[in-house]
Specification:
Distance between the termini: 37 Å
Radius of gyration: 18 Å
Helix content: under 10%
Protein name: Glycoside hydrolase family 16 protein
Strand content: 25-35%
Shape: globular
InterPro entries: Beta-glucanase-like (IPR000757), ConA-like_dom_sf (IPR013320), Glycosyl_Hydrlase_16 (IPR050546)
Family: Belongs to the glycosyl hydrolase 16 family.
Number of strands: 20
Order of helices and strands: HEEEEEEEEEEEEEEEEEEEE
Pfam families: Glyco_hydro_16
GO molecular function, one term: hydrolase activity, hydrolyzing O-glycosyl compounds
CATH topology: Jelly Rolls
CATH architecture: Sandwich
């Protein structure tokens, strides 16, 4: 169980500002709507919504979470539907009926597409220290100290380039090891002061927590948490579950997914249902992959392995809409 419940974005901000270890998490159906700016995607077209009114929930409010920035970004324009080889349609959600879905997004990381992916959050400047790449058909993000000697967060997202409302979202990934490492895959948006958020996977290694294990003196991740935060100004935590997989998540690739329906979200680990929440979430969201530090993983230190060999490795990111 969490000792406290704070929004993932708030936790990261507090960790950077206060250097405090927080034990917390950040954290389908109807048809899906998607929009993209890249020819490698199969998108259904449509406009990005930017002012969707908040929806009702009975969740208990927690600490307000928006960062102290003004969102002045403009939504991307509607984009013509790109083309894609028919073979891409063979990609189906793991453990789901193929007949129920149409592929809308398929990133296989044959190359790094800077017109689709950003390498920072919208309010940040990009850290020039290189700690990510695309090679061997995978996105790799690894722990690295920058020029000042500090471990720094790296976020790879589709903000401004690809959004979707409802559907099935899945990655296949292998996680890094070491104290402080906090990798995640989430759906998110910043709409004025609102921050709707669905954390499909955020994993922990090390720290003073029962789900951390120690192998040869290095902390390895065995547990992760799916979490949903309501997109209102108060930052309401709708639900979360700490799920101990019983296996070393750094030793091989696993599938992390969510089926997002208008009034229901179902989370999966390797096709197994691990959490279901019944809550209305109707804002379009973009995709995020990151390697941050802190939360239940503790603070990174000299024992945290640095370099590409200890990467958060993502084999693919895919999304589907409901037929």
């Amino acid at each position: 169980m969490f000792k406290s419940s704070l929004h993932r974005l708030t936790i990261s901000t507090l960790c950077c500002a206060c250097a405090t270890v927080l034990l917390a998490a950040c954290g389908g159906g109807g048809g899906g709507e998607a929009t993209s700016a890249d020819s490698s995607l199969l998108a259904s077209g449509g406009q990005v919504q930017t002012n969707v009114p908040p929806v009702e929930t009975t969740a208990t409010p927690v600490t307000p979470t928006p960062p102290a920035t003004t969102d002045t970004s403009s939504p991307p324009a509607s984009i013509p539907e790109p083309t894609q080889p028919a073979a891409a349609e063979s990609k189906t959600p793991f453990g789901q009926p193929a007949s129920a879905y149409s592929l809308t997004f398929s990133e296989e990381f044959d190359t790094y597409n800077s017109s689709l992916w950003n390498d920072r959050m919208w309010y940040e400047t990009s850290n020039p220290t290189k700690n990510y790449t695309v090679e061997d058909g995978k996105l790799k993000i690894w722990p690295q100290r920058d020029a000042s000697g500090k471990f720094f967060n790296r976020t790879i997202d589709t903000d401004g380039n690809y959004y979707q409302t409802y559907g099935y979202f899945e990655i296949e990934a292998k996680l890094p090891v070491g104290k402080g490492t906090w990798p995640a895959f989430w759906l998110f948006n910043h709409i004025n002061e609102r921050r709707p958020e669905m954390d499909v996977m955020e994993a922990y290694a090390g720290g003073a927590a029962p789900w951390g294990v120690n192998i040869d003196g290095v902390a390895h991740p065995t547990a992760y948490a799916p979490t949903v935060w309501k997109g209102d100004k108060e930052g309401q935590l709708v639900g979360s579950r700490q799920y101990d997989t019983g296996t070393d998540l750094s030793a091989g690739y696993h599938k992390y997914a969510v089926k997002w329906e208008p009034n229901k979200q179902t989370y999966y680990f390797d096709g197994k249902e691990v959490l279901t929440l019944n809550v209305s979430m109707g804002d379009p969201m973009y995709l995020m992959l990151d390697l941050w530090y802190g939360s239940a993983s503790g603070t990174p230190d000299d024992s945290t392995p640095q370099g590409k060999s200890n990467s958060f490795e993502v084999n693919y990111v895919r999304a589907w809409k409901f037929k």
